[in-house]
Amino acid sequence: MNRERRTFLTYSALALAGLASQWAALEPGRLATALGGRRVDDELVDWLEDTSTQLTALPTEQRQHTIKLMDAHLTTVTDLLEGARYSEATGRRLHHLAASLSSTCGWYRFDQGQHYAAGKLWNAALTNAHTARDRDLGAGVLSDFAYQSIWLGQPGSAVEPLSQALIHTSHPTARSLLYLRRARAHAALGSTADCHRDLAAGETALLTDAADPAPGWCRWMSTADLAVDSGQCLLDLDRTDEARGRIDEGLTLLPRARDKTRGVFLTYEARSLLQAREVEQALVVSTESLDLATRIGADRCVTLVRELAPAFKPYQQVDGVPEFLERLRTA
Questions:
Q1: Taking a C-beta distance cutoff of 8 angstroms, is the pair 64, 55 a contact?
Q2: Cα angle at 188 between 185 and 192, to 5 degrees?
Q3: Full residue range of the structural domain in which residue 262 is found
């Protein structure tokens, strides 16, 4: 058993022990009576929300092992919504929690390349966010759908949902992320002026102070994301040298804990290096990205690295490239 797996088992054992202890203190019968038609009380909802927060706070590498817990948690909340009694305020909390859990579970399916399953979960998230009257969260789910469209090579389908999402959220961090994703769509469509307009708006929004914390769905948004995704836009617009500078800047700023994001960003860097014909360095970066994606179990990131294969094929005389291509073939 390797060290990473031992670390996970130790961490998850401690985390699950804590959850079990909370469950015992809560009295499991309370959930059974709620599902049997009894009224859902605030303590139960508090526990459900706290448990959701603990699960979603796990490092990226460990969430691949806890998705069944997340799915079960979503099922419990859905069962309460369908079969229990609760006040209007409690119902809104449960719908908000269902929306948040559906969004997170959808992202896991997206990372595994299960795009239809991701879409179903995000549709449920959007419905629950609407019922909870949380326009910010609904805007975040629309942004997820748009990101999926861009990822699947359909950027034209992303522009309108992102424009709608911008209407329904006012927090500057949320707006920065939405502008950035719309800039990505414009860049993929070759709309240079629209792309630069949205990049400028995204940067301005991210630098704007806000009295309230950012919504949970975009709290991770940072200058690192702005820099790298700006670089990816520049790559799509064939401005390779500028793109490399922004991508390097973003990778330097990105926290180590965000492994999945780092894996995606590294593929962007590899693509910029290949465009500049710096094949040896591109090979180093691509290998790092593939190793990371394999370790955290992110099939979507493995696929992203695999898509670099055609760009490597003209350089099979370079040491290491044939072996890397063979590895990609079997990845």
A1: no
A2: 90
A3: 253-331
Same domain, 98 and 202: no
From residue 113, give the alpha-carbon distance in Å to each of 26, 45, 169, 180.
37, 32, 29, 23
pTM (2 decimals)?
Answer: 0.79
CA distance 256 to 138: 29
Q: Say whether both 172 and 75 belong to one domain.
A: no
Q: Please check whether residues 26 and 95 belong to one and the same domain.
A: yes
Burial bucket for residue 12 (CB in 10 Å: 0-12, 13-18, 19+) = middle
Q: What is the pLDDT along the chain (331 residues), one digit of tens a residue?
A: 444 334 333 334 444 444 444 444 444 455 555 555 567 888 889 989 998 888 887 766 666 677 888 899 999 999 999 888 889 999 999 999 999 999 999 998 998 889 999 999 999 999 999 999 999 999 999 999 999 999 899 999 999 999 999 998 999 999 999 999 999 999 999 999 999 999 999 999 999 999 999 998 999 999 999 999 999 999 999 998 899 899 999 989 988 778 888 888 899 899 989 988 999 999 999 999 999 888 887 788 888 899 999 999 999 999 999 999 999 988 7
- Tokens standing for 154? 């359909």
